[in-house]
Specification:
Elements: H1 4-39, H2 43-68, H3 70-79, H4 83-111, H5 122-136, H6 139-154, H7 159-181, H8 191-215, H9 224-227, H10 233-267, H11 269-305, H12 309-336, H13 349-364, H14 366-381, H15 386-410, H16 414-446
Helix pairs in contact: 1-7, 1-11, 1-12, 2-4, 2-5, 2-6, 2-10, 2-11, 3-4, 3-6, 3-11, 4-6, 4-10, 5-8, 6-8, 7-8, 10-11, 10-15, 10-16, 11-12, 11-13, 11-14, 12-13, 12-14, 12-16, 13-16, 14-16, 15-16
């Protein structure tokens, strides 16, 4: 895999991936900063943040998945050198994502009373609902930002979103400090302060990314997407055909982690707080792996548009190798610092001990997690999304969650047993998605 051809793929993949990885790292670090700052308020606010984020992210990731449809579709049209097609996809995608953001925000508001029926600690639910309602308002600006971002990334520009995301996230951390603790003349809003900081930063991100796409010289031709009201239901249906199954893939995975958080709540406030710490840290490596997945989606889609099928296959395999190496390093770091990282969040010895044991399990599923997310990205580049969605529901809901419940409660392994279920689900998904990419690309090449 070190031939000149593969070396060129590694280079191109990396040049596309690293801005997305840094952007995603910045995004995750905001979550880390939120948890660190909220954790200083105590275990209950930290658990409340975990519970509120479970509901919000289970719905938000569906919108994220739908927005991701723009990137491979635009990349393929770019490979065909069809600018009019790109304009149509962007225009209709912007409309789809805006309407969807409004619908999802309404859905989260309607779901908030459900928290009282999840057998969670009442004091945690009381804290989480106001926080959840604040961050829900950020759904619409988030979807607008995603529309502009996926358009730019589909044309190979991944750096600007990185700069905007990192800058807005730095502002988020500053606002956290002022609004959570009541600094610089602001009121001390506690957990709700973290929610307001998130909302403000996402509005700024949407405005900044929109202005860049509209004003950038290299996108000048595509300003027509803003100036016309001619929408195509056929284009919208194509976006939804790719986006809805992708969104469902994300829901199946994230909701599995969400249900895991609910099961941790059944074990008590401290296991739930420990889960928040461990999942917060694991999300750092996962979100950076999505940078490699995004690069795979862009380049696979572009090679497909150019009908360079052998190159398309090579792009996917180099992406798998890159993510396996990266996640292997992440696994080693989790093992070495499993007893130190939790101390950055809380000073409760019991929470620290539980979180440390969960980080060992997180280390075990790092490579599987990376391979499955790159597999989804590469297959999305070929508009192959329905079978991967079935793989996701099978792996996470039919295998991972039941295994976690059996190990955690049936066999009495507690928090660690629940997380071992995640390991099983992610590993099965990784194997099946890797196989799916290999068999699909081989079939395409045999048809030439």
């Amino acid at each position: 895999m070190l031939s000149a051809t593969y070396q060129e793929h590694y280079r191109k993949n990396f040049m596309l991936a690293y801005p997305v990885m840094l952007s995603q790292l910045g995004q995750v670090l905001v979550g880390v900063a939120d948890s660190l700052m909220v954790g200083r308020l105590g275990a209950e606010p930290l658990a409340a943040a975990s519970l509120g984020n479970v509901i919000f992210y289970m719905i938000m990731v569906f919108g994220l998945g739908v927005s991701y449809a723009l990137t491979p579709l635009i990349a393929a049209a770019d490979g065909e050198n069809n600018q009019s097609k790109i304009i149509g996809i962007f225009r209709n995608g912007l409309m789809v994502n805006t309407i969807l953001g409004m619908i999802l925000a309404l859905g989260v508001f309607l779901c908030t009373p459900v928290l009282y029926h999840m057998d969670q600690p009442p004091e945690v639910v009381d804290l989480s609902i106001p926080y959840l309602r604040i961050i829900t308002v950020s759904m619409v600006p988030f979807m607008l930002f995603q529309s502009f971002r996926q358009f730019a990334e589909g044309l190979g520009n991944t750096k600007k979103a990185m700069f905007i995301t990192v800058s807005a996230n730095a502002l988020n951390i500053i606002l956290n400090y002022m609004l959570i603790y009541g600094k610089m003349g602001f009121p001390a809003l506690g957990l709700n302060g973290a929610g307001w900081a998130t909302l403000i930063s996402r509005v700024i991100m949407a405005v900044a990314m929109g202005l860049f796409v509209y004003r950038a010289r290299r996108f000048h031709f595509y300003q027509a997407a803003f100036k016309t009201t001619k929408y195509s239901w056929e284009v919208m249906k194509r976006i939804l055909r790719v986006g809805v199954p992708t969104g469902m893939q994300f829901i199946f995975e994230v909701s599995a982690f969400g249900v895991t958080a609910i099961m941790m709540g059944w074990l008590g406030t401290k296991p739930l707080a420990a889960h928040q710490i461990a999942i917060n840290l694991a999300s750092i490596s996962y979100m950076m792996a999505t940078g490699i997945a995004s690069a795979a989606s862009i380049r696979v889609g572009n090679q497909l548009g150019q009908k360079r099928y052998q190159s398309m296959r090579e792009v996917g395999y180099t992406s798998f190798i890159m993510v396996a190496l990266f996640m292997g390093i992440a696994a080693l770091i989790f093992i070495l610092f499993r007893n130190y990282f939790p101390m950055l969040y809380v000073d409760d010895p019991e929470v620290i001990a539980i979180a440390g044991s969960l980080l060992v399990v997180a280390a075990l599923f790092q490579i599987s997690d990376g391979v499955q997310v790159v597999g989804m990205g590469a297959l999305r580049g070929m508009e192959d999304v329905r079978i991967p969605a079935l793989i996701a529901v099978t792996s996470y809901w039919l295998l991972g969650l039941p295994s976690g419940y059996l190990l955690g409660f049936g066999l009495g392994m507690g928090a660690q047993g629940v997380w071992l279920g995640l390991l099983i689900g992610l590993s099965v998904a990784a194997v099946l998605l890797y196989w799916r990419f290999g068999s699909t690309t081989k079939r395409i090449m045999n048809l030439i």
